[in-house]
Write a structure and sequence with these properties.
By secondary structure, this protein is mostly helical. The chain is built from five helices and two strands; from the N terminus they run H-H-H-E-H-E-H. A two-stranded parallel ribbon has the order 1-2. Helix 4 links the parallel strand 1 and strand 2. Helix 2 packs antiparallel against helix 3. The longest helix has 13 residues. The radius of gyration is 13 Å and the shape is flat. It starts with 8 loop residues before the first helix and ends in a 6-residue tail after the last helix.
């Protein structure tokens, strides 16, 4: 299973987003991301994790995800666009 056509799991495959979020308990730990990624059929190094809590971003980075600390919408949108532009075959 690869990246959905528009690169956004929540919009094209909401059931995957819901199943993943159901497995994560607060606060997230690296083990949670190691559990969620295989269930989604993705590799951590292919994921971009965006959150406004530095510890959550650090946990995602620890398992190999790219992490972005949310500060405002513009910066997050730019970071997401850069991530999607690097996905082979997405454009």
């Amino acid at each position: 299973m690869g990246v959905p056509p528009d690169g956004v799991w929540g919009r094209t495959e909401p059931q995957k987003q819901n199943r993943a979020s159901a497995t994560v308990r607060r606060p997230p730990r690296p083990a949670h991301y190691r559990t969620v990624c295989p269930r989604l059929g993705v590799r951590p190094e292919d994921c971009l994790f965006v959150d406004d809590v530095p510890g959550h971003v650090a946990a995602a980075r620890e398992v190999g995800m790219e992490g972005h600390l949310f500060e405002d919408n513009l910066r997050a949108m730019v970071r997401i666009a850069r991530h999607l532009a690097a996905v082979p075959g997405l454009r």
